[in-house]
User: Fold these one by one.
Assistant:
Number 1:
Amino acid sequence: MNYLKENMTWCVWKYLDVGEGKPRKVPYNPITKKAVSVKNPSDFLSYEIVLPFRKNYDGLGVRVDKNLVAIDIDNCVVDGKLTTLGQDIVNHFPNSYIEYSPSGKGLRLFCLMNDSFQYDTTQYKMKGKNVEVYVGGYTNRFVTVTENIYQEGDINVCTDALTWLLTTHLKREKRTSKTIQAQSYLSDASVIQKASSAKNADKFKSLWSGDISNCSSHSEADLALCSILAFYCGGDKNQIDRLFRNSSLFREKWDEIHGNDTYGNLTIEKAVNSLTSVYKPINLDEFNDELTRLKHDFNFPLGNMYAWNDIGAGKLFADFYQEILRYVPERKSWFIYQDGIWQKDTGNIVAMKSVMELANLIYLCAIDITDEDKRKTFQRFSSKWQSHSYRVSILKDAQVYHPIKVSDFDKDIYMLNCLNGTYHLKNKCFYPHQSKDLLTKKANVSYEPQAKSHRFNSFIDEIMTGDNEKSSFLQKILGYGLSGDTRHECLFILYGVTTRNGKGTLCETILNLLGTYACTARSETIALKQNNSQGPSEDVARLAGVRFVNISEPQKGLVLNVAQVKSMTGNDTLNARFLHENSFDFKPQFKLYINTNYLPSVTDLTIFKSDRIWIIPFDKHFNEEMRDITLKQQFTSEPVKSAILNWLIQGYDALQRECLSVPKVVKEATHQYEHDNDKIKLFIEDCLELGGFEEKTSNIYYRYKQWCLENGQFAESMKNFKQSLSSQFSIVRKRPKGGGNKTTLLVGARLVSDFL
């Protein structure tokens, strides 16, 4: 039983009346509370996740997958004792795990199939009298698991016992008369293509090429090839004969008279008479789960929710696929839920394929309509779905039902989508992916709460030069990037004067770990531009839903666009659009992290007054002897990434408890950065002498322009210059102390003498 718990995927199930004469066991995902399809492995969960929901349903179930074999022995328990059939089968599986069925009247046995074992569906049936066998990879099924043990045992390979069971109880009988009405759905070329890609493709290809080494005689090989052709040709003897003549097995004997007919005709007759089924374009068994959902959850086609017309068709499609397909008007596209995230269905390929799948289901629904006139009306309706142009119109009509805005995605700023599920940063819960979360991003890491990495911890200590306070601050600001919370409204500059100081390795590691939650941005995104382009703002549009934005090594001399930075680091709604798409609004969730050897220039000092920028110094330099060239590779391994994620989560939790708590070294570096960008203050320090002096502002401005030219700075206008000086000095219009006409004077300083 432990094998099932550890290696297989699970569901819950309950009895439903679907109009088949007896209740049917329907599998459900307990998280989504929706009926699931056995064809979709992602709908099934681990045993640990499913188990707590058992009490709310009729039982647990397991998907028959991989090399698992499940054997049902029906009605073999009578008055507490086994029937002869039941006892015989149990005796052949003395060491296997066996449990009672949900009714208590039967047994279920589990074993494994050897990789080399061939389950030939042309020789063996799935169902016999009171015996059923479900084989992983061959039968699309789930089976119930009661854990009501009849016989303790292991789930292991039982090749001999399985062969005995199939041969004794499930071997197909050879028919002596034709029972299949001949009808081929395939062209000759399609028959070859289908047979060459089937489970027994190797056998077909071998026979088709004339290889009879696996048969006891040439005649046996002839019959084996004809049997395969008979299935795909639907029993059409003319097509079988035509194809066989093109195979390498064909020989003169084919046209020899044997009794009243040719050898070839007799061989074909024998193959056709042995048929129990033939190829059909639509296999009803493949649609059972989806048909059940269509009939039970949507009461189609007999209910009144969906009319048999164009409007009903569009609404049915939108409702049926609402959990995995939604239209986004701003992006002019359908979005599909796959692999735990919502993503753009480029070219609407998945949406169109889904319409085709629904068309096939609707075609099969006609069997539920007993009234002949209604059935004919419905068949006319279902036949329209086979037209490409009609399916295109259905997609257009469906767009008005359940549309979703870009701003509806990624709304919960505390959800962090990981490879193996979703972690909630606020309530610290971890649960399976679900479409209703409306997440478009996924981190490239699995959440493993016990994972640790001593090497990463030592790396942080090295690049922060052993400064625990600075290390803690770095951990908090990087953990801040896990959430969509932007309350601190600031950007972070990881600054190192020297190269090889670890900041690049750190940023690349976080970018890789956060997957689509992170992205790089061009330095032009935050640079002051000479012109104001009105083109598509794709640089900003691609940041919707992103949480960690890295700008790496901006060019020397870059001037920061302060207005843009304030907008991007604030909580203001941003507007952007992709090329050839509508514009859309979104709330920024991203934080900006710049790693650089050159600090950008700042012309608007108000950005410092509101603590919008913090400088984190990277003072360490790794020389050739200290450099670890394997470090980046180490940090991309799955266990280490999980450990780094835990380190980031710890940083986020610390940020919630302590706020930023900026350390002294960061404050000093930031204040120095502000000072170095305060052009007026630098000019005053270089060119003015403070005291009880006065100086004409015209003289000061003339010297200021010279100073700007000497220092590669842009000179402000006289008006702006005087306004900047007025914040530190008194500027008045009066007569100078030395006499003369009234003029504008700066009181409290004078120009430094060139001779000093």
Note: The chain has a mean pLDDT of 89.
Number 2:
Amino acid sequence: MSSKIAVRTGRLGRSVGWAAALAGLIVLFGGAAASRADETPAPIAASGANGACLECHSTSAEAIEVEAADGERRELTAYGTEAFAASVHGRMACTDCHTDIQDNDAPHQKVGAPVADCATCHDRLWEAAKAAGTAAERPALERVVKNAAAYRESFHARPDADHPERAKATCTQCHNTHTFNVPAAGTPAHDAWRATIPALCGESCHEDHLEDYSASVHGVAILEEGKSDAAVCSDCHTTHQIDNTSKDPTKLLITSNCGNCHEAEYKTYRATYHGQVHSLGYAYTAKCFDCHGSHDILKPTDPDSSVHPDNRLETCRECHDGKKLPLATAGFVSFGPHAHAGDFERYPQLWIATRFMVALLIGVFAFFWLHCGLWYYREWKDRRDGVPSPRVKVSELPIDEKRHVRRFAAGWRAAHLAFALVTMTLVLTGTAALYAETAWARSVVGALGGPANAGIVHRVAATLFVGIFFIHFVYVMFHLLVRRRGQFRWFGPDSLIPRWQDFIDCYQMFRWFLGMGPRPLLDRWAYFEKFDYWAVFWGVNVIGFSGLMLAFPNVTASLLPGWVFNVATLVHGEEAFLAAVFLFTVHFFNNHFRPDKLPPPDIVMFTGTQSLEEFRRDHPAHYNRLVEEGRLEAFLVDAPSGSFITASRVLGLVLIGFGLILLVLVSIGFFSTV
């Protein structure tokens, strides 16, 4: 070795210092190679601009050991000419990056010599391309520049804790200085290149993680079984925008990245409460790696896996630890975080519940939307044909023409208003979670201060909802069982309990719609008004009890199996959708948008009264009964003042407007999931 060094002393004096600078020649990012078709480098010849360098810095030459400027002895950096020619920078001259080398006689071993700056060089080339109007022809360069910008903001670019003068990870630690290239996707060379990524990350910095990864399902798949589509470090952590894994955005991003491979599992995860709030930007909920692990993921059948049946309760208790969250109980184990409604064999309860809810939705909307459509057509046709509406000759009655009929007492009106407000709040906050993937849901939740605050608002509104319902129920029962005991006819015309006459009225209504008979004479409570009333009882019980199950999972799981959570989540969301769409279409139409009610709003639920003419048109059987029994006078009250009517109209329009906005948002959410 020493004799050969002596022979080459002349060349060494001119060229040995190239090594210090050559160590900084960097191939910055994988994105540059993804489009190598348009920037394929020309092979380099061992002469010309780089020839002098290759005399010492080529692997074809025998290794040379020299004394560096700091007194340490080391071998010159060497690389293969063929590998360099095939790299992304293969047609560049050495001095394009090693700008401190002026000529062959310049001193190579310089302390503090400038290091080649990858990002600055690519930025300069990109600016030049844009100025020359050739940027569109350089897509690979554009990706490199974007990757460089992402790297500058990444965790790797921050100062290292032990060596603050340098970054945690530099370009050259990931990209081989002179030979980096990403082979074309789908080729054996590309598969082999992907298999090197775990070792690249692990051996240079993350040794412990590499050990765990190598034994995981992902590591075994790609390192031992040769499955190139198995996840490697960059699939989960990304390449250049890597950030601290303790940060919320990083946790959310990694979970989303799991879905890039596990699409079906990610879709079912997003349908759970955990997945819904994750989609809304809440990081403090169960995510993929919280249950499955991160680098040491094992098959669920492996006894050491965190999601093995024997280990699931312990895994659940990592979050539901009895401190911040109630302690997980045995029923948690049978919860299906990836339950699929189409799989009857594995999830029969969810399969049945899904089909029941679909049938309910189709049945309710098919009947009532048909009812609305025919009703609108009939009233529109009567108006077009000039068919007169029933009118009351008030002048022939011994009453003041300006008096109104009282329909609702103050307590009923207050309860209705409160119910409307909390219901709209529940619809807004609840469907934001149900359709968490939509842009409007994220905006609404963001305006409320995040998923945690939105959840608090939802639960407060739910408590008020149940409270109003309970107070109403207690009042009605007290009124009927105590104050009017023995006087009230439970199935009489003044009762809200459905009776046979309601079915007759509905049948006759359809006959009138179709021009096959006269309009039925509806009594105090029309059949569709009774449906509205009792639908609340159904909704409170279905939505309320399913909501309680989800709000107190530890209690639920101590009494019931975990699949109840899957069914409760489904029923809670689908019933809320049914209630919202029914309210803002059918209920709004019946009371505000059919031709006889135009222009909206109908303010009877705000003023509590109707004119005699309107009352006679909407409830003729009740009107006739009161006249025949001589009790009409008892129902008459003074007409509301003009200012009260104006205020009622404004309030009605505001509520209708907000309801229609909610209908649009819910519709957007629904169709985005179809």
Note: The first strand starts at residue 65 and ends at 67.
Number 3:
Amino acid sequence: MDRIRIEVKASRAVDANLDAPLYVKALSSDSQRDFWMNFQQVKPDCCDVFVWIAVWRDVIRYWVLSSNEVKTNQHYSQGQHRGNVGEGQLHVRHDNIQEFETYRVQPNELERAIYSAYERQNAIQS
């Protein structure tokens, strides 16, 4: 994996409708409340593969995406901060999480998934 540029981001699932500190808003995976998580300072041009760690109070989930899959995702917004170039954010919510299921992996599948995402990225660049 020495040649693969990997960016790791983590975010927690929080109650999207509660005005409270994040530790109070943290939700369990079986919650029926609307949730939101925000992967920030995402830099698709600086890596080949993203490993995203999604944290609920009772479970941790992993998604592995190629850089292009992030950059072209409809939920990715460039320019997280005014004047920033090449950096954005991506919001995963209760109403779009199913769109990311194809990238979800178990912890023991991370290495294989990283290689697979790297191959998808290279296929785009070739």
Note: The radius of gyration is 15 Å.
